[in-house]
Amino acid sequence: MSTEIWRQANELFERLLDVPADQRKAWLDRHCAGDDALRDEVERRLRTDAEAAARGFLAEPVMVPPAPSSSRDSPSESPAEPPAQFGPYRVVEELGRGGMGTVYAAERDDDTFQRRVAIKVITAETDNDEVARRLRAERRILAQLEHPNIARVYDGGTTEDGRPYFVMEQVTGAPIDRYCADRQLTIRQRVDLMRQVCLAVDYAHRNLVVHRDLKPSNILVTDEGIVKLLDFGIAKVLTSDSQLASARDATAPWRQPITLHYASPEQLRGQKVSTASDVYALGVLCFRLLTGAMPHSFDGLSPWEAERQMTAVDVPRPSSVMRQKVVRRTVVRRTVMRQTVAGSSATRQGNRDAMAPPGEAETIARQLAGDLDAIVLKALRAEPES
User: Which of 86, 124, 276, 277 could form a Cys-Cys staple with 264, CB 3.0–4.6 A?
Assistant: First the structure.
């Protein structure tokens, strides 16, 4: 596929998501204008999105929802019956399904030892050489990494029909942004979690591995507050080792899965990816955890339009974002009080209690000013060499 078709397909796919389902065929007829290759690529992305609700190796990381009542999205069609066995591992249940693969919970089914694990395997309908190479590359990459904040790989193999799989640590936890929000963590507590993330990424970098897809859904936090970094499915190995050359082959710029809001400018430009690309994603993640906002708004933008915005628009200081919240909350608070001035004192008191106090945002702004502002803005520099 050419770079131009990849770009056009990205743009059309993003726009198509806002079109009602019963109007999409006519919309594609108009906008693809007889270009079968472009239309096929847009429809492929749409099918993948419907199955996985994400662009990437899997729709969800290898995780178990923290609440018993939580469950994965029900597919529109009944999923195929899972295999009963992967080597010595007995399948217990399906955990997640994406456009390229499926994740199962499994147990070691022999007398050697007892262990609950997660198994990632390519689905039959997407079995092809490129996907197989990517999964094998991920298995080799993860097998090299032993760090308390990186999900461990225990084993790997190939199914009877030739599909590769790997067996890894099953992580029970919540995405880092949801973990912070649900527990209303302080700035210090959020920084402590980011420190764990940075230690894991630094370890990977020192082992010549770039993650390339750092985002909240790939960073889980356990109930004990331990960060676990997941899914090196599109990682690039910074080595000339011939055994790992396929990892580079499978991540050509126009084919690599990326997450727009966390991708670095050089990723969107299709240029060389380095450790600086992960640093940029860490900056985006830190900005989000500290402010509840994103450094840029890419709604409705194509990847190349987003890249232009990254280089043309300065990222605001996190502390200034919080001070803007102080202003907005104060205005809303005064408006509510004016609207209820004719009401009872009890009603007015109820509205006061419902509003988040502006003083809280101002306190956070003061905590962010200085070192945290400087660190985040440094990580979010658009030029990787800076």
Answer: 277
